[in-house]
Design brief:
- By secondary structure, the chain is of the alpha/beta class.
- The chain contains nine helices and 13 strands.
- Helices cover 33% and strands 24% of the residues.
- α5 packs across α9.
Length: 264
């Protein structure tokens, strides 16, 4: 827990967030760790099957207040199974988004962005939400979308783009996870393209119309899970570096909620 708080300090979390220890004894011994984006039935099964003492999930299982952890409700059932198996659960959410090796920073690095800086800087200007930078060589929106499809794990929803296939792209803003709250940020508005997840109809439509009127970025919408899954390998490397005695594993289970898509 001390190492996790050093790597992803709790004070970096958004006020509405709920990272940290969800269940487990802080004094319990840890030998094997499994990292995942979501604590769901499949990843809890995997943690128990591999004999993990700790499951580190990006998304908090108990993000909002609950009044019951009865086992006829899935969150209660998962917590009970983890407790019976002696497997603790820790969430590292927005506190793992803002750091220099966090979700958005990893995505920016995989895209090869240069001169990278946060979209919304924190108290430390090197830390903050999202990242913006430039490509080493200009490309087009279509080629960038195809490159993203190669970088990210496959999902049913794939990669969607709003803009011309051959529109030129050099400056790129990224935000792992749901990032429509940053659509109006000046750093995003000044970019050629904004890559994020969970773009809803109205925010995307309004951003597109505003771009047509006064300039703004093309949009690329990807799977929420896929945009953050890349971070797991980085987090695992950091934990291995701090604790070489641990068996640290990354779950490859796809916890994106969509199973297939019919393209019209």
């Amino acid at each position: 827990m001390s190492t996790i708080d050093r790597l992803w300090p709790l004070e970096g979390a958004e006020p509405w967030d709920a990272p940290g220890l969800v269940t487990g004894d802080p004094d319990a011994a840890v030998e094997r760790v499994l990292l995942t984006v979501d604590a769901v039935s499949g990843t809890v099964d995997e943690a128990i099957e591999v004999g993990a003492d700790l499951l580190v999930a990006h998304h908090p299982l108990l993000l909002r207040g609950v009044t019951s952890v009865a086992e006829d409700r899935y969150k209660g059932a998962l917590i009970a199974r983890l407790i019976r198996a002696g497997c603790a659960l820790i969430a590292a959410h927005t506190n793992a988004d803002v750091v220099d090796r966090g979700t958005s920073a990893v995505l920016a690095r995989r895209l090869g962005l240069l001169d990278v800086r946060p979209i919304v800087p924190g108290a430390d200007p090197a830390l903050g939400l999202g990242r913006v930078g430039r490509l080493s060589e200009p490309t087009t929106l279509g080629r960038l979308a195809r490159h993203l499809a190669e970088i990210l794990p496959a999902t049913a929803t794939g990669v969607r783009a709003s803009g011309g296939f051959d529109d030129p792209v050099e400056t790129v803003a990224v935000c792992g996870g749901a990032g429509d709250s940053l659509l109006g940020d000046p750093a995003v508005r000044a970019a050629d393209v904004y890559i994020t997840a969970d773009l809803r109809h109205h925010p995307a439509s309004e951003a597109r119309e505003q771009s047509l009127l006064g300039g703004g970025p093309a949009l690329i919408d990807v799977s929420h899970w896929a945009s953050e899954w890349l971070w797991l390998d980085e987090a695992a490397d950091q934990l291995r570096g701090a604790h070489p005695e641990l068996d640290v594993r990354v779950s490859e289970l796809r916890t994106d909620p969509w199973d297939f898509q019919v393209v019209q």
